[in-house]
Amino acid sequence: MKILSDFSKALETMSSEIEAVPAVFYAAAGGIAAVFIILYFLVFPKMKMEEQKKTVYQRYCINGLFIVYLAGILTVTLFTREVQNEARVQLILLNDLWEADHLGKAAVRDILNLVLFIPAGFLVCWHSQGKWRAAKGTIAAFLISLGIESAQFLGKTGTFDVDDILFNMLGGAAGAFILLAFKHAFGGKSAARYCLRGVLVLSSASVFCIMGILGTYHFLRVSGAEAVKDNVSTVENRMVSRQDGTAEGEDNTMYSYDPDLIWYGGRAYRYNENLTTILIMGIDQRSEVIEKREGISGESGQADTIFLLVLNHEKGKMKIIGISRDTMTDIKTFDYKGNYLGESINHLGLAYAFGDGKEKSCQYMVDAVSNLFYGIPVNAYVALNMEAVIGINDAVGGVTVTVPEDLSKTDKELKKGVTVTLMGRQALTFMKWRDTGIDYSNNLRMARQKLYIISFLKQALKAVKDDMALPLTLYQNLTDEMVTDITPDEAVYLSTQILSMSLDESGIMMLKGDSARGSVYDEVYVDDKALYELILNIFYTEVKTEGGQ
């Protein structure tokens, strides 16, 4: 799984470096390159002039293409990178390739370095005449790479890495070889040359396909990263400074000069903009698919399972916050005909029921959860029919758990203390079932859900390693059992981020609260101080200020 994570990080790094260059530069470079190619192949060959002059002008075009290429290489590798604290050097050849922990990232990086310098060898070899054309292309790639690595070292914008020089040089050699192979294949007629033509055409088509896939990924990642920043909640952020965390005799109101800062315990916090928050809901509609129910309010099902997934892009970590469906909080309420009655304190899971069973219900849940969390932004939502657990569980090969409580009433294999690999409806039983005759039974169910999620994520990562297309397959198969506002480009971006992030057991937490027996149903009242501190810990970053600590 480490290799898969490194592969994801390498793609992310590649895309980020490309994104750092303004789009107008790519447009200008592409336009200029197109002009040179048109002049070389279509204009100069048809002009009435001496062949020697035509050759000279065509070589000028090759020179122009090389300058455009060189400008692009320097822009991506030098001019868009930030200055680091110190110059770094890596002089051990193929160092990362010998270390399993870095194999995936190193392999992708080295392949990209090779591909990036194929045009250097190709263009120099194309421009050269006589013998040693391939050697000239290889040497040119070496000198360009050496210059870039030296500039990165001196300017502290990167690492002087001998691996980069090696694979850049191999890329130059490959480019020169490709040009000579094309010249040989199309320079005469024979069975061997025809076979070589076929190989070259297929290889070129494969390269263009790979470039197209990477280009599509880059476009989707960039557009998805921008789109996912939107806050889909309509609730305003209500976080304010508090005194209850301040040490005795300490007054934090003196540090309120910056309205964007939250003060607590004599320390300042600022909201972390580098987060993505996704509300994940398991919906109980007593049907196999999520149905849209219009015209009737209060009967669209309930959110039985509620989790808030928080992605910290800066630290590369995930957090999952479990929220009880019985949490008593302000939710939007409506009468049977859908007329708005205002907000009232009720069970959180009921917010879903007042919508249409789909998008409107999800929006009510987003607003209710955001409101509970003092208006923290929610960037996306996913609502899954609880029945979908069966297909998802089986798609990753089943999930192994140790049963924490006796569930043998509903499944004879689920005895307390038994380790079992959940398959089919058994997984749904483990996740969903509770004995309503026992007070606070949802708390026991949430403990099982936390246990299941930990085991599921481990198994899912192994499954994705074996089948990279698994997330897309599940996305397509769950269309009728899922409601989400995550678009395909956002899904590409988020999946890349999630695969590169870490999550341990401490990263899965349940919202603290006190359980009480209501007139009809169990009720959970959130520990407000614990919630406030959790919000600061996960959604805010401590900052140093003048006069503060």
Supply database-style keywords.
single chain, 549 residues, alpha+beta, 6-stranded mixed β-sheet, elongated
**Poorly predicted runs of 5 or more residues:** 246-255
Number of helices: 15
C-alpha termini separation = 41 Å
For this entry, what is the oligomeric state of its chains?
A: single chain
How many strands, what sense, and barrel or not for the largest sheet?
6 strands, mixed
Name the beta content range.
Answer: 15-25%
Q: Give the averaged pLDDT, no decimals.
A: 84
Derived from helix and strand composition plus strand pairing, the structural class reads alpha+beta
Radius of gyration: 30 Å
Principal-axes geometry comes out as elongated
The helix content, as a percent range, equals 40-55%
Can you list the strand order of the major beta sheet? Answer: 13-10-5-6-7-14
The total of beta strands comes to 17
Descriptive notes:
48% of the residues lie in helices and 17% in strands. It is α+β, with helices and mostly antiparallel strands and 549 residues long. The strands form 6 sheets. It has a 6-stranded mixed sheet, with helices on both faces. α1 (2-19) runs parallel beside α4. The chain starts with a helix and ends in a 6-residue tail after the last strand. Mean pLDDT is 84; it is low at 246-255.
